[in-house]
Amino acid sequence: MTVSSEKQSMNQEYSLCMPKDFERSRNLLQQVYEKQVVLEYIFTRGITAYGGIRVNNRGFEKEVSVKYSIDQWKTASVIHAYHSIFYYDSNTNLFQFKLTITIDELLLMLSTKDSTSSILPMSISFAICYAVHEHKFWDNNYSRDYILEIEENTEKRSKSILLDDAFRVQIAKDYRAISHGSAQAGIVCGLKNLGGTCFMNSVLQSLLFTSPLTSYFLLNEDTKNISVSNEIIVNEYLNLIYLLFCKKYAVIIPVPFKQIIGHMQDIYFENQQQDAHEFLLFLLDYLHEDLIRIKSTPIIVDLFHGTYKSTTTCLDCEHFSVNFETFVCLTLPIPLTSQCTLEDCLQHLNEDEYLADDSRWFCSECQRLCNGKKRLEIYKLPKILIIQLKRFQLNHEFNWIKNDTLVLYPVDNLCLQQSCPSASSQQALYTLYSVINHQGSLNDGHYTTFCRDNEQLQWFECDDEKIKYCNSDKLDSNSNAYLLFYIMKNAT
Ligand SMILES: [Zn+2]
């Protein structure tokens, strides 16, 4: 049997954690028919333990499943869980798992345990399924006894990455932060691709360079006591911001963040490519919910929310009605030409849409369905304007196709006054600070990001963990641009 150094990290700072016994160097590498499996890491957040298994042999194909059970302190029921994981990316053969002990089960555990002890023995068994040329076999040889130690930790709530040094060290461990020293542009920290997760990395990189939001987290007194709590995205986001901006690390591996979002939404559990735009909306939504709940602060709304005003006019009687609707992202269709400007795309926003036939509109004046026209304009501009260029659309055969039209966008002085007549010319001016690019086809694409550092006014090209300086002329004719991030010039 081959022996390799153990790769594990765990989080001891949380209320429920693995004991010292587990921390001891222990080799979990197993050999099965010359296939090597290593239990890569386990860490806990609250009462959920996360882990990953790395399979070091690529001799088998397509499917690896992980089955596990927790035998809690002998007498109670066994939790059987099963997650079948398919991997799409041959670069990383990491399969993630999640063991959740529900609050009810935890309470039961606490009530039956010896009152003098805060230790719960538990046995976790893993079974790994290999598929070789479509023949599957299960290997059950991965059982271990763990001891869960419950800390009677009352100071837990005061732990914040902005205040607690020991906690920072722990978080850096969880993220397996690689210290600075390797060639990386400026002070920017790269994010390792976990296999198809460039959609997540690109969105994180753009958001982290959204200076009013990042300043809010790092400079605001209010955020210093955003503390460790169960699976709160904002807490993990703050950990990420700290690691990326503390100027100590060149690369981090965003597994803890990925696992938290995978817990919140199933589609993010596995490592596979997703749409960056959808993920951006998901993340802003959860950040907003968390910040409202913990801090009652509407900062996400203040920064990112704009308002549309749509006016529908009856073509028979000229009666009109006005509706207001919030937007987080301005989605613009791209004309089918080889090249156009962002202003061309914006013009379509204000074009009258005629409502006829099946889309006729109920006029409250005529009291019947009437032909109408609908006009959309922006009523309130957001401080941070995110524009999605609608590159992906269904064709007549209902297949998704990508539009590669070169859209020329201004880096400085994007003026939106035409789309938002109620704004003053001062308010309507925007500066670009980030672009998310999508290269390749829909199914086989890759996301990268251009980001501008607000202090150095320097552009960077972020390609997952690789960060390079780049000249702004690289932004000028960029047919891969998918999401554009602008900041209002006179945002107060
Ligand atoms: Zn009418």
Automatic annotation (TrEMBL):
Keywords: Hydrolase, Protease, Thiol protease, Ubl conjugation pathway. GO terms for biological process: protein deubiquitination; proteolysis. Residues 189-489 form the USP domain. GO terms for molecular function: cysteine-type deubiquitinase activity. Belongs to the peptidase C19 family. Its EC number is 3.4.19.12. The lineage of its organism: Eukaryota, Metazoa, Spiralia, Gnathifera, Rotifera. It catalyses: Thiol-dependent hydrolysis of ester, thioester, amide, peptide and isopeptide bonds formed by the C-terminal Gly of ubiquitin (a 76-residue protein attached to proteins as an intracellular targeting signal). Gene3D superfamilies: Carbohydrate binding type-21 domain, Cysteine proteinases. CDD domains: Peptidase_C19R. It comes from Rotaria magnacalcarata. This is Ubiquitin carboxyl-terminal hydrolase. Residues 29-149 form the CBM21 domain. InterPro entries: CBM21_dom, CBM21_dom_sf, Papain-like_cys_pep_sf, Peptidase_C19_UCH, Ub_carboxyl-term_hydrolase, USP, USP_CS. Pfam families: CBM_21, UCH.
